[in-house]
Write a structure and sequence with these properties.
By secondary structure, the protein is mostly helical. It is about 70% helix and about 0% strand. It contains 7 helices and no strands. Helix 1 crosses helix 3, helix 1 packs across helix 4 and helix 2 crosses helix 3.
């Protein structure tokens, strides 16, 4: 959890990580510091999806563009942002959208 949260926090804000994982900023800070207990299952799944999308996009884009990708409406996600879709649990759709973006950008 710490490693995934650290990687994600290099690109997006702790506030956005908390939003996506449906937790608090304090929980995110605790994950980064390594002082938190294991996140609940649903938060862990959302965190894994967010970091997987991040790693897919890092192959083709810079951090600032990836940050915008997470917060911008996406036509592949019914115009929700990937962050909103992750929060709602549409994890597979977000990963498909990230792969589609990476293929297009490549």
């Amino acid at each position: 959890t710490k490693e995934r949260t650290d990687e994600l926090a290099k690109v997006v804000t702790q506030s956005l990580i908390a939003f996506m994982t449906h937790t608090t900023e304090r929980a995110v800070r605790d994950w980064i510091n390594g002082s938190a207990q294991q996140p609940r299952y649903e938060a862990e799944k959302r965190l894994l999806a967010a970091t997987t999308a991040l790693f897919i996009l890092q192959k083709v884009e810079a951090s600032e563009t990836i940050k915008r990708w997470f917060i911008s409406g996406n036509p592949n996600l019914d115009d929700l942002s990937p962050a909103e879709s992750i929060r709602e649990g549409n994890l597979r759709s977000v990963l498909r959208a990230a792969r589609a973006y990476a293929v297009y950008a490549y």
